[in-house]
Batch of 3 targets.
Target 1
Amino acid sequence: MNRSIKKKIARKLIEEFDLVCRHYFNQPLDEVINDLRVNCIVARAPQDPINLISDINKSGILFFSSDAAIVYLRKAFDRFDKGLFGLCISCGTEIPEDWLSKNPLTGYCSYCMLKVRTKGAEMEKPDSVYYS
């Protein structure tokens, strides 16, 4: 995945994180990041969404809950930080940009997602208030 696509997808993940911040912390993303910066957990300026994802992931802030929405976001941030984001966790193929743009938390390509849904297994993206 080239850097411009990675930045575009990173921005979508940050938007998802903003929704989590507003729902769970009753604060917008900027205030949460400022709190992390004051506590020396996030050191870099948040202009680069790729670095911001890495900082948020390392901060441990997404480990406060086992709520499905948080777990899926944490998994996506972890894959992103490890350089595995955009690769299907089932078959290993690259997930097309348009599929990631529509489903930024997914870990599956559209083919494997269909298989998961058909088998009735747990889906990578839960139905919740965040994804309606």
Target 2
Amino acid sequence: MERPRWWQTDPHEIANVLGIEGIRAILEAVKALKMPIDGHAPLLSGNELNAHVLSGVGSDHECVSYEEVNEKLRLGMRVMVREGSVAKNLKNIAPKLKSADVRNCMLVTDGDRTPLEGDWRWNSSVQWT
């Protein structure tokens, strides 16, 4: 199979250069490979979120409120509540999660916090929850 020129390019660059057609090409290629599609769609809701999910996107780590998390969980998405070095969403979301079905919900952090064991910032986030 001859691959298009953009095949080994950063997905962000494909979207920036090719726009919506580039995004469609990425989604089609990923679906053909049967790979999961992770999304990054803060504040997306309603019909736009429904279209996002129907396109095959199965997860998000950009949620900033409980309402946003709840809507995405209700649509079957996997939601990552982020407590990072810049984005700190845990305190806005965690208290209300006690009444939600959280089987598809997880706590995540930045990649710069490895190893996590012994990291006081991560430990304090987990203890807080």
Target 3
Amino acid sequence: MSAVRGCVPSSLPLVPPIDVDDSCLSTAAPNAVGRLDEVTTILPSTPLFLFMYVRKEALLSSQIEGMQSSLPDLLLFENDELPQVPIDDVTEVSKHVAAIDHGMRRCAANVRSAPHLRPASKESRRNGSTVERGRP
């Protein structure tokens, strides 16, 4: 039998305790939502903003996984042009975009429970994942 090593975190409560000012939390969240709502009034096009935001989020997620793709590469790929990076990397980012879009459509349809959002996760892994292809 082989030995197994693991990290066991300290039990709660944390030492030193975390000092959370409840009055700050109760006003910060509504203020942040108010600022976000105000930004939407000055956007020239909310769908265009979401289009670019989804792609940027997909790129950041993919870059964490070691992908080499950039926003120009993704936009080239989506317009059936040849990107400057390996096609597998751009394809992987494109799958992330499809998964995020799928999740947003599910949320727009008021489907927000975990079992109903799992298809978005499956969508991102369709046609093989980075782990299956031997990437870290």
